[in-house]
Write a structure and sequence with these properties.
The protein is mainly alpha-helical and 147 residues long. Helix content is 52%, strand content 0%. It is built from four helices and no strands. Helix 3 packs antiparallel against helix 4. It is elongated.
Length: 147
């Protein structure tokens, strides 16, 4: 699972949200989790998975190119495929890093993040006596400043 793998942006997440990544995942499950935290952790999971793919292809190419390996085992087709796979994985990694970085830069500080808003509206009722005097002319009008 990608939440257990490290990513290159874990320190940024910890700095912005003020808690280690495992704690962030636990708090994201709660009802009061901010949408920014949920999105950031989703992007982080994708990033961690993509970084693992990059590492796997890199390691496979290194094994294939080992100087002690028999040259008869080299395959140009296999290396071309690995190069294409690596390019796709690197593009995805760069995109996830950019998206997560942008989210972290543009989101409000944790203290100002929106919490769920109540939609019930309170009603104020005031009983006005029927014999109330009408308001004098100009009531509520702003006074002009005198020099």
């Amino acid at each position: 699972m990608s939440r257990d793998r490290a990513s290159t942006m874990d320190a940024d997440l910890q700095q912005v949200f003020g808690a280690p990544v495992p704690e962030l995942y636990e708090s994201a499950v709660g009802r009061d989790a901010s949408p920014a935290l949920t999105r950031a952790l989703e992007l982080r999971s994708f990033l961690a998975l993509t970084e693992e793919q990059v590492a796997r292809v890199r390691d496979r190419v290194h094994r294939d190119m080992d100087p002690d390996r028999d040259m008869g085992e080299l395959s140009a087709d296999k290396l071309r495929f690995d190069a294409q796979w690596l390019e796709a994985a690197l593009d995805a990694r760069d995109s996830y890093r950019a998206a997560l970085g942008e989210l972290l830069r543009t989101m409000p500080p944790p203290a100002q993040q929106a919490r769920p808003v109540r939609t019930t509206q309170l009603k104020a009722t005031v009983a006005v006596p029927s014999s109330a005097a009408p308001a004098p002319p100009g009531a509520g009008a702003a006074r002009a400043r005198r020099p």
